[in-house]
Amino acid sequence: MKVDMIMPQMGESIAEATISKWLKKVGDSVQKDEVILEISTDKVDSEIPAPASGTLLELKFKEGDVVPVKTAIAVIDSDGKGVSTPAAAATSTKAPMPAQAAPSTPPSAAKSMEAPPVPSENGQHSSDRFYSPLVKSLAEKHGVPLAELDSVKGSGQAGRVNKEDFLAFVGSRSAPSASSGTAPANAPSARAAPQFNWNEEGMTVVPMDNMRSAIADHMVRSKHTSPHVYSIQEVDMTAVSRWRKKNKEAFQKAEGFNLSFTPFFLEAAVKGLQKFPYINCSLDGKKIILKKHINMGCAVALGDAEKGFGLIVPVIKHAEEKNLVGIARALNDLAQRARTKKLSPDDVSGGTFTVTNPGVFGTMIGTPIINQPQVAILCLGAIVKRPVVIDDMIAIREQCYLTLSYDHRIVDGALGGSFLAFIREYLEGWDMDRALF
């Protein structure tokens, strides 16, 4: 029986994806749920598994092709009988996309990345182990022989080394000795600077990769769709910070991960959306579509500063049904799977409201663009200690700026300001006697 493999829709706003790499060729045997290709969208680079076991009968598209979602991209013979002649488009050879290799990579180095495991011209060795084009590109940028990665335990599917595994390896490999001094605790992790071939004018051209190009298109479309307005409130996070400090160790012991500040903001936003449902809606022409459930999107940076990090917004479904611990669990699970390419299409679709947190990078105030078709997005600034006046006395408090970007077609200043005021009051009035579990 022939089984079509369909290009998945990685999010409700995603209409197409680029085939980055076929990991199998026509005639190969595949197992159900075995990864057989990599795709790229504006949200994330994803590994796509086979829908059935059998023989790969046909590849309908080649690497680099941009394919509409819900389109058949391959055919698997689940009976494993015979192989048809693949489509001409699928068998043609295409050079790797510019975004998959560093601009400074010489042709000889690029060739050595695909060669059998023999010494290359620069003395480095390749490997029999499979590495994705992204990992190969990073290895070339950082001068790491692929054979050296054979000892790295991968956290990806089937133990594959992903981007985060590689960067962690490079960080440990190039960590400074004790005699060279240490960076401040709050400083960004040290990473080798990317190397470029500068021209005589001191410039170089780096083509946008598929993710960055699609993000650009979607952001421009959002600004053209929604008249953006911004409101900002300052929040005293001292009570939340003290409660978190009191319960942090117990939470870590029970859950196995750190309790960050983000779940507190998410819980406050959920309560605010329940009180102000017109912020938890979308527009269809002149129709306002209110949403019964709160599907909370939370932006996750994917950790590649050399490519502008990359961003995906996984969604906590029915967030109104979860308490603080439940929200923290869901957020941690989604963030971990986002960074290891294990999100499903359902994990990034159906959001009704979004929270983004550039404060973790030290940003004080941000004015984010609305994630269509939603009508608002909440931005969290850094929590810092500042002197403030309380009852005519100067006190040191942990302060944070919150920005609400909203669609002025449906949310006016009074509604937006009231929503932010509710969140501020909810967090500043945090009950210090509240039980953790």
What are the key terms here?
single chain; 437 residues; Chloramphenicol Acetyltransferase; 3 domains; 4-stranded antiparallel beta sheet; 19 strands
Model description:
The protein is an alpha+beta fold. It folds into 3 domains: 2-91, RNA polymerase II/Efflux pump adaptor protein, barrel-sandwich hybrid domain (OB fold (Dihydrolipoamide Acetyltransferase, E2P), Beta Barrel); 102-174, no CATH class; 228-428, Chloramphenicol Acetyltransferase. The protein has 9 helices and 19 strands. The protein has helices at residues 88-91, 107-113, 133-142, 163-173, 210-225, 238-255, 262-275, 324-339, 413-428; strands at residues 2-6, 16-22, 29-30, 35-40, 45-49, 54-59, 66-68, 72-77, 228-236, 281-284, 287-290, 296-298, 300-304, 309-312, 315-316, 353-356, 376-380, 384-390, 393-407. Strands 9, 12, 15, 16, 17, 18 and 19 form a 7-stranded mixed beta sheet that branches. Strands 1-8-6-3 form a 4-stranded antiparallel beta sheet. A hairpin with a 2-residue loop joins strand 10 (281-284) and strand 11. Helix 7 (262-275) crosses helix 9. Mean pLDDT is 81; it is low at 82-125 and 174-190.
The gist of it:
The chain has nine helices and 19 strands. It has helices at residues 88-91, 107-113, 133-142, 163-173, 210-225, 238-255, 262-275, 324-339, 413-428, and strands spanning 2-6, 16-22, 29-30, 35-40, 45-49, 54-59, 66-68, 72-77, 228-236, 281-284, 287-290, 296-298, 300-304, 309-312, 315-316, 353-356, 376-380, 384-390, 393-407.
